[in-house]
Specification:
elongated; binds manganese (II) ion; 13 helices; Alpha-Beta Plaits; 21% strand; alpha+beta; 5-stranded antiparallel sheet; binds (2S)-amino(hydroxy)ethanoic acid; 9-stranded mixed sheet; Aminopeptidase; 36% helix
Length: 417
């Protein structure tokens, strides 16, 4: 059922949306206009406090659950399961100002637009931000939403150690966001997430909206390669057990693997730490991460298997040991066809160009899809750049995403069932 005629002309306030995004970007600012707010750091706390203050200004009731997920609730006229939107406000170290933030600020903008227009909805509307979506400090990514949907035990999550050795639960207490709201009390009737594409497709095709129909599988592992430190000058090459060389061989292998597999297979070695990390010492140890992704689960398993075989041979050839620790493993997700179609119908009614699209990135929506009908709305990232302060989306596209979110939520929140 489409929204009553009176609301058809409703649009969000583009300037206000951008003003809030700019304000949030000022927390943990980095050169180039982006932000660094690693999960559960003081900057993350400051960002959380700002968004919670906006929720309160908008008259929303604020719930914080035991993993620090925050839910702003705009009451409906009936006691029904809510329609939920949201995303994350934690960032990677080289974060842009839109990744995650747009989904949360966009949700608040929808609420303010409805408040200003005096529009009530049958269903409550909830705007959420989930803890540690990036997984950059505490793996896995989407940790908060994974716990929220019951995919990871709370105690296990609280005991996760970060890349800096901190315990997640201690950090949550320290920043004052270890909430008491029981998990999933706000089980949503549907979830819609607005997010930048973070890839090049919409920008390259000159399109405004992506109706996201699926999201690729993710495999994260940490490899610890143990060799033998030795003198860089005196040790003959044939006697070396060089952990740094082995790490470089892994990075080279996974790149080669993507060339051979083709399709949507991607692979990234994003983090390498060497010990003792000195110019004249053959590295005793290398700790590195491997991020493999594919839209097809069978192919993703094949990539993991081929990497495993390569590591066995490499250990033999180089006389090193290689241990692997799985940091994240999520299968590909297909979003709810009904919600995707609704996003498409709203988009065409509003007159924006669009296409169906796959998400290469992980999102909280992939976790919410486990408990309710879920889909996503993408807006273009200029040149597909993200996880980089140069991340940019044109103001008109930000507003277009906000308007599609507004009318999609209005329709979902006006459903009797
Ligand atoms: O890793 C991801 O795809 C997301 O940015 N957490
Ligand atoms: Mn994101
Ligand atoms: Mn991200």
């Amino acid at each position: 059922m489409s929204a009553p005629a009176a609301t058809q002309a409703l649009r969000i306030d583009q300037a206000r949306l951008i003003e809030r995004l700019d304000q949030l970007a000022q927390i943990g600012p980095i050169d180039g206009g982006g932000s660094c707010r690693l999960a559960l750091t003081d900057d993350d706390r400051r960002g959380r406090d700002l968004v919670v203050s906006w929720m309160r200004e908008l008259g929303m009731a604020v719930h914080i659950d035991a993993i620090g997920n925050v839910f702003g609730v705009r009451a409906g006229t009936r006691e029904l399961p809510p329609v939920m939107t949201g995303s994350h406000i934690d960032t990677v170290r080289t974060g842009g100002r839109y990744d995650g933030n747009l989904g949360v600020i966009g949700g608040l903008e929808v609420v303010q637009t409805l408040n200003d227009a005096g529009i009530e909805t049958e269903r409550p509307i909830v705007v959420a931000f989930f803890t540690d979506e990036e997984g950059a400090r505490f793996a896995p990514d989407m940790l908060g939403s994974l716990v929220y949907v019951g995919g990871m035990a709370l105690d296990e999550a609280l005991d996760v150690r970060g890349i800096d050795g901190a315990r997640l639960g201690d950090e949550l207490e320290r920043i004052g966001y270890a909430g008491s709201a029981p998990m999933t009390t706000l089980k949503p009737a549907a979830f819609v997430e607005l997010h930048i594409e973070q890839g090049p497709v919409l920008d390259a095709e000159g399109l405004t909206i992506g109706a996201v129909e699926d999201l690729q599988g993710i495999s994260w592992q940490e490899l610890t390669i143990t060799g033998q430190s030795n003198h860089a000058g005196t040790t003959p090459m044939r006697l070396r057990h060089d952990a740094a060389y082995a790490a470089a061989a892994v990075a080279n292998f996974v790149r080669q693997l993507t060339r051979e597999m083709g399709g949507s297979q991607v692979a990234t070695v994003g983090k390498i730490d060497l010990h003792p990390n000195l110019i004249n010492v053959i590295a005793a140890r290398a700790r590195l991460t491997v991020d493999l992704r594919n839209t097809d689960e069978t192919l993703l398993q094949q990539a993991e298997q081929r990497l495993g075989d390569f590591l066995q041979q490499l250990a033999k050839d180089e006389g090193v040991t290689i241990e692997s620790r799985q940091l994240a493993r999520f299968e590909p997700v297909i979003f709810d066809a009904g919600v995707v179609q609704r996003i498409e119908a709203v988009t065409s009614r509003l007159g924006y160009s669009q296409r169906r699209i796959t998400s290469g990135a992980g999102h909280d929506a992939q976790m919410l899809a486990r408990i309710c009908p879920t889909a996503m709305i993408f807006v273009p990232s200029i040149k597909g750049i993200s996880h980089n302060p140069a991340e940019h989306t044109e103001p008109a596209d930000l507003a277009a995403g906000g308007n599609v979110l507004l009318h999609t939520l209005l329709e979902l929140a006006s459903q009797e069932t």
